[in-house]
Amino acid sequence: MSQYNPRLIGPANTLDHRVFQEEAPTGQVVSPWHDIPLFADQNAGILNMVVEVPRWTNAKMEISKEEPFNPIKQDIKKGKLRFVRNCFPHHGYIWNYGAFPQTWEDPSTTHAETKAKGDNDPLDVCEIGEAVGYTGQVKQVKVLGIMALLDEGETDWKVIVVDVTDPLASKLNDIEDVERHLPGLIRATNE
What we know:
mainly beta
């Protein structure tokens, strides 16, 4: 059982919808960005990730940097809720998408690899296991690789991970293993 549970406020796909994190069993609200530790087991290299957008969904959810306790809410652009377009043959995100707690892409630092500054957000995570997550879920994952994207001139790292409880987790240890066992997934991620 997870140490954290989501508390949903307001109807989904509305400006009022928020997903707060509660510590189990106390029910105390905590920040998914500042209070959940990055490492679930540092010696084993197992990290916590917070699921913002479950696989096969379209609502562009993200941790709010500005609101108290940093709830997960739907992103807004030009006053409208944001949704990710479908890219045939996929519907929505092809992985569980989220963030690593206690990380931040520094907008004042230029990355040598991209020649661009950070995007001022927590590090993005793409969890490629077979289970569909849920918004606010805290998963324990291992890192398989990373890719850098440029988004509006800013560096936006995407860390590729797998849930440590996934049936393929023991066979996936790096990006080459992903291509071997899930051919085409990295290419689809990059598209």
